[in-house]
Amino acid sequence: MQASYPYDKYKLYGPYFHKVEKRNYVMLVSKEHRSTTAYARYLMAVHLKRILAKEEQVDHIDGNCLNDVLDNLQLLSRLDNIKKSIVQNDMRRCMVKLQCPNCGKIFSKERRNTHLVITTRKFTSCSRHCMGIIACKLQMGVNCDLSSNVIELFKV
Ligand SMILES: [Zn+2]
Q1: For the segment 58-97, what is each residue's pLDDT rounded down to a tens digit?
Q2: Which end of the chain is more exposed for a tag (fewer CB within 10 A), N or C?
Q3: Sheet with 150-155: strands ordered across
Q4: pLDDT tens, position by position, 39-65
């Protein structure tokens, strides 16, 4: 079907559900040009009767990215959106998956209890025992490979 203004030169296909991004998308096709855009973005553009700028983002107020009704949509600047997602993410604990530089054991710790936050430490070991051994080696100038200490960050 024909898309609405400001996309009235386009034919509208969709909305389609995007499995990976878990959002609804529409395809806009004209003779010269074709593009896909989030359905929420399309609805907001039609509502505001203008094409949205790149830095403008359409946010789902209730956090449900499939609830594409105008009442549930608000326009945010990119910065607002980043701030909002940081607030939501902070509900979860930041964890670090680590490999002990002494014994090689794989373990996890809260990020705030590791050398990524505690800057007076150079590494994070699995136990006090391993910490003592590595600290001793470092003090004696023995070369310790600390590069594989941090494996990945994750949230719980
Ligand atoms: Zn260890």
Answers
A1: 999 898 999 999 999 999 887 777 777 777 666 678 899 9
A2: N
A3: 106-110, 94-99, 150-155
A4: 999 999 999 999 998 888 899 989 899
Specify the pLDDT at position 89. 63
Give distance in angstroms: CA of 58 to centre of ligand 1: 47
Domain ranges for the chain, please list them. 11-89, 94-155
Ligand 1 (single-atom ion) residues, CB below 5 Å: 100, 102-103, 105, 126, 130
Task: Specify the pairing of strand 94-99 against strand 106-110.
Answer: antiparallel
Q: What is the CATH number of domain 11-89?
A: 3.90.75.20
Instruction: Tell me the CA–centroid distance for residue 25 and ligand 1, in Å.
Output: 49
What spacing in Å lies between the alpha carbon of 110 and ligand 1's midpoint?
A: 17
